[in-house]
């Protein structure tokens, strides 16, 4: 399974997945507002195939199965909505959105599309959390927002 990460700072806690030989999950793409020259050392260190400053590149990429969203709160609803619309499973830093109504709309969309949508504590999210999330997708548990 291929993972796209939005937010290179907090999302970097997931990058060790690329060194885990016990899983086929890989972070293949990263999106960040950071200039590419600043991101290059991170991309090289973790063997990430692509870098963009446009999140929509990740949503349109048919090789990406999961989007991990660690963008600022003001962008999360739109990023989650676009990812779900594109048929991607979503792991997102909490809160998902700025209002309970937006969060409910995302949960409803995920349920309608049979996609997994899960929140994580951005300060405690690790590669192990992503692997547990991937297991949920593989066994196709019902959608829930935690």
Total beta strand runs: 6
Strand order of the largest sheet: 3-2-1-4-5-6
Task: Extract low-pLDDT stretches.
Answer: 139-146
Mean pLDDT: 89
Instruction: Please tally the helical runs, counting DSSP H or I stretches of 4 or more residues.
Output: 5
Task: Provide the structure class.
Answer: alpha/beta
Task: Kindly state the percentage of residues in helix.
Answer: 25-40%
Fourth-tier CATH superfamily name: NAD(P)-binding Rossmann-like Domain
- How big a fraction of the residues is strand? 15-25%
What is the radius of gyration? 14 Å
Under CATH at level 1, the class stands as Alpha Beta
CATH third-level topology:
Rossmann fold
Q: Quick one: overall form?
A: globular
Query: What's the structural domain tally?
Result: 1
The largest sheet is: 6 strands, parallel
Known CATH architecture: 3-Layer(aba) Sandwich
